[in-house]
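Project standup — Tuesday

K.O.: blocked on the structure for the chain from last sprint. Re-posting the sequence here as requested.
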Amino acid sequence: RNLARNRRRTAISLAVVAAGTVALLLTAGFIDFSFAGLSEAMIHGGLGHLEVARASAVEGRQATLERSLADGLEEWQEVQERIEALPGVLAAAPNLHVTGVASTTDGRSAAFLGLAVDPARERRMGFEVRLRSGEPLADEAPAVGEDRVLLATGLAESLGLEAGGRLTLLALDPDGMLNALDLTVAGIVTTGVQELDTRYLKLHLASAQRLLGTARVSNLVVTLDDTGRTEAMRAELVARFAGREPELAVVAWQERAPFYRQVRNLYLGIFWFLGSIVFVLVVLSTSNTLAMAVMERVRELGTMRAIGTSVAQLAGLVLGEALWLGLLGALLGDLIGGAAIWTINALDVKMPPPPGAVNAIDLKLSYVPEAFLGAVVLMLVVLALAAVGPVVRVARLKIVDALAHI
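H.V.: unblocked you, prediction finished:
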């Protein structure tokens, strides 16, 4: 009833609380979707959930394309079979990292970073191939003289090649000898990162082993049916291969993706900064509303004190009004925030590519149940703090002065 006395002021206060709640919900939804989307994009873009490699190859090198072939896996098929026998494992795909020079018949050349894969297992693992033209690599190992390669857009442009073109790869084998392999361009792809697109290519594992004259692989990339089981599976693989020689390392995808940690920390910093601003604005606005309500009812409060109402009861009255403002405003904000999230998702808005990327990204927001509940609790706390000043004013109120107040 007290809140309904000055409906305009109460409505403004409710709007402030609701707006603060909506701001927090939209920010939490954007950050949660960004975290989930970025993690899944990195996992299914080639990182997988886990990497199994020789410990000597992993030590001091966490970047994806920095696994020395000298420290590669030799008996990798046996390790692969043991991993794929575990429940929840989609596949353990072998990778072979290749570096060297690509050249064409017209004299163009460029340094490359190559990744040799098992296309069949990559497909089973849900790895995305962003094909711009041509066709993907075949599942079957190519015959001698029929090797094919996928070139990234930037590398293909610098070499002047399109799907169907021919090029020669030059690379050093494990003994330091220079080997060459002629290939046909099967298609043009993009990694989504401009800098990497200027050097990246992908070929079949059999082609890379033929080029390097080796049966080794650089590592095994393990993909699971549930990202939430990553740490449990990592612990299981560590225990399963404990004592094996040469020693194996099992690395979770987060450790191989420092970019993800940097983005996560940046977004969390933005969230807490925005939350602090909302906190201050809501406290100042609602505290002013409650103070005005007390000042307008000084004689009324004095009369209540004169007929025996205790200071604690009056303080409880003011605090109760503040909590009702917080509760109603937060619930209203939850409703508006939920509707806003649905509307934004339905609009299918595209955002420009982030720095260094080539593909536009979707502007999507997640429904975060914890955020909806947490916003209500937060606003109750905020309004309780906002009521501290008015409560102190009521506690210091003298009956005689209150009754004489005009």
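K.O.: great, moving the ticket to review. Residues 82 and 240 are 9 Å apart (CA to CA). DSSP finds 14 helices and twelve strands in the chain.
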